[in-house]
Amino acid sequence: MTDVDPEEIIDLLQDLVRIPSPYFEEHECAEFVYEWLAERDLDPTYHHVSEPEITEYEGDNVIARLEGSDPDAPTLLLNAHMDTVKLVEAWDEDPCSGRIEDGKLYGQGACDMKGGLASVLVAFAALAERDLKGDVLLTAVVDEEGPYGLGTDRLIRDGYTDDVDMAVVTEPGPVLAQEDLENPALLLGARGRFLYDVTITGEAAHGSQPYKGVNAVVDAGMVADALDNLAVGSHPKLGDGSTCPILLEGGSQTLSVPESAHLMVDRHVVVGETEAGVRADAEEAIDALDIESEVAVSFRDAPDPDMTYGPYVTDEDHPLVGALQSASRTVTGKPPALGYFASVGDFNYLGDRADLPTVIVGPDGENIHSAGEFVYTDEVIEVAEMLVAAGEELLC
Asked: InterPro entries under this entry (predicted)?
């Protein structure tokens, strides 16, 4: 028995959803999570996150640890983020209502990922009642939805992952998998991501005589098209990489040939593609255009150069995968589907930068990042039960 109380976990989920926590505004949610753990004598601590240079952000992760009896036994990390995207205006009800209807709980972040956060908290509390040999580290983090993943980045920088052996992140996997999946499902890897930041510099001239200048906006359009059609890598598990121009701006003066333009292009990559190779791909494609403007290719500014979302794949034979497969059969009566994530998140930091075997398993739903977001309440319960069962197999 997993000792997961279905009513308790759904009440907890409603409480979490009813606290607005857009990224960079997670303070109230962090306080709630801290108090929930403290009320159960689980000894939470705040872990400060500061980024003064670009975002001027100050916030706090919430961390708790269960210490096992055997120092040689493995340590399991349970990671979930407390923030959501900014509240979407198109809701036709309170975006933080927590309304339940037909087995669905509605609210901004209900699926991404307060459902997974509720699962982690309840599973952690249940594992605290077990006679564990190994440790369990709980990290409820800030700023996963923001530009840099500052919460989990700071965990790694401050050494919290140094003694961890494996990680579970309870993101909603099936909704963003590379292929159609339904829960129960385990996602064993993810593509990585770079963001090209391209500056195009032409030559101004009067708009009535454009042949006297070099139109940076026109050349930027050609660069955008070239990068949109860039040859990308492929991987047997992660599928193909991709490119997507997401911003093109330049020019503004009446009757003037634009002398500069700015282009940003999203580049999702697979294992084997490096930062140097990604830059070279873009530069070679641009050189082949033979345009008159000067073009400089760089990457989006980040607080630290190593804050990159690298791709990763977790071995299907790893004990964590086996324990979660067994847990799925026990809890749901079904073997889980295995898949891979299409985009990026804190799991990239853990699976690539921290080099941890990392599995995504979380409750699914629909309309993530948009109005009408919901999570399936039965899957929130099942994920918590799976985490407890897997934790018992790995750590007891």
From this structure: ArgE/DapE_CS (IPR001261), Bact_exopeptidase_dim_dom (IPR036264), Peptidase_M20 (IPR002933), Peptidase_M20_dimer (IPR011650), Peptidase_M20A (IPR050072)
Q: Say what the pLDDT of residue 253 is.
A: 85
Which CATH number is associated with domain 192-299?
3.30.70.360
Of 272, 276, 310, nearest in space to 192 by CA:
310
Contact 156, 354 (CB under 8 A): yes
303 cis-preceded (ω within 30 degrees of 0) = no
Report which secondary-structure segment, H or E, holds 286: helix 275-287
CATH number of 6-191+311-395: 3.40.630.10
| Distance, CA of 187 to chain centre | 13
CA–CA gap between residue 52 and residue 254 (Å, rounded):
38
Residue 37 has pLDDT above 60, yes or no: yes
| Banded pLDDT at 93 (limits 50, 70, 90) | very high
Cα distance between residue 245 and residue 145, in whole Å: 20
pLDDT score for 252: 85
269 close to 194: Cβ distance less than 8 angstroms: yes
Q: Which of 145, 153, 129 is nearest to 29 (CA)?
A: 145
Q: Where, residue-wise, is CATH 3.40.630.10 in the chain? A: 6-191+311-395
Q: What is the mean pLDDT of residues 253-281?
A: 95
Q: What is the pLDDT of residue 2?
A: 67
CATH 3.30.70.360: which residues of the chain?
192-299
pLDDT digits (tens, 9 = 90+) for 200-211: 999 999 999 999
DSSP for 319-358 reads HHHHHHHHHHHHHHSSPPEEEEESS--HHHIIIIIS---E
Both structure tokens of 315? 């071995």
